[in-house]
Amino acid sequence: MRGGRAWSGRWLTWTTSPLALRRLAAASVVVNVGIVVTGGAVRLTNSGLGCPTWPRCSGSQLVPNSKLGVHGTIEFTNRTLTFLVGLTLALTLLTAWRQRRQAGLALLALAGVPAQAVLGGIVVRTDLNPWLVALHFLLSAAIIAATFVLWWRLGQRPAAAVPAAARWLGPLLVAATTLVLAAGTVVTGAGPHAGDIKDGRVRRIDLPIAGLAQLHADLVMVLIGLTVGVVALALALHSAPLRRAGGLLLAVELVQGAVGYTQYFLHVPPLLVGLHMLGACLVWIAALHVLLVARSRNTTDEPGPLVP
Predict the structure, then answer these.
(1) In this structure, which of 77, 178, 271, 287 has its CB flanked by the most CB atoms within 10 Å?
(2) What's the predicted TM-score (pTM) here?
(3) Is 201 within the bounds of a domain?
């Protein structure tokens, strides 16, 4: 027993390292962005109902059989990746709890994983209801936000000297980004990539896609305008951190916009749709970055006492 406790203590020693916690927080961001991209690959390869039931894959079988083919393998692989996401966030929570640093935020991020799994099951059981698919993506965006804020708070990040009257620009920017993401999911739900082609079971959002795409583009223009405003404010205030954050967001937006327009005029080829989903995650993270830089005063999070 004594030897077992000693081995356990040595195994848990790494959880007291602030560097390990920061790396786990960064990994949490990466794996959550990654599962958005792989989830998009499931839909874009028409594998959304590759495993037609949930939580099992088919009937009484947990894993796909040969009758389900490659679509079953793709869908099951994406489900399996949920365990990697959960493990990463669980280790992040354990390390945060041991160091008494941002454990509440780590717990919030971890709680999103079972919620996302259950919602994914409901999506399958409702034959990929497009509104629920949209909610599935937006919940991923919320988890990404929690993990990114966690990573930010664990490091020594540059703060911008922004007047109190101008700090509303950051929240407004994030609100506009949220509307852009939400509108994008509706456009996707009305578009041609239903996620499964069997029996025509998957319904689409019955709204004119041209009008939805125009609304989405208009919201993007508003977002870009706000971003230009942030960059102008940073230049006026001579704030290098805010200028870099705003410039990075503007660059990501321009690339994302180019991909979006290209996919629209090429009739949404799957590869570009997948890149657009990755770009949406990067725009979201970059917008959160601007918010955190503009609102930060003292961004150094000193480690608390370690749990023995």
Answers:
(1) 287
(2) 0.89
(3) yes
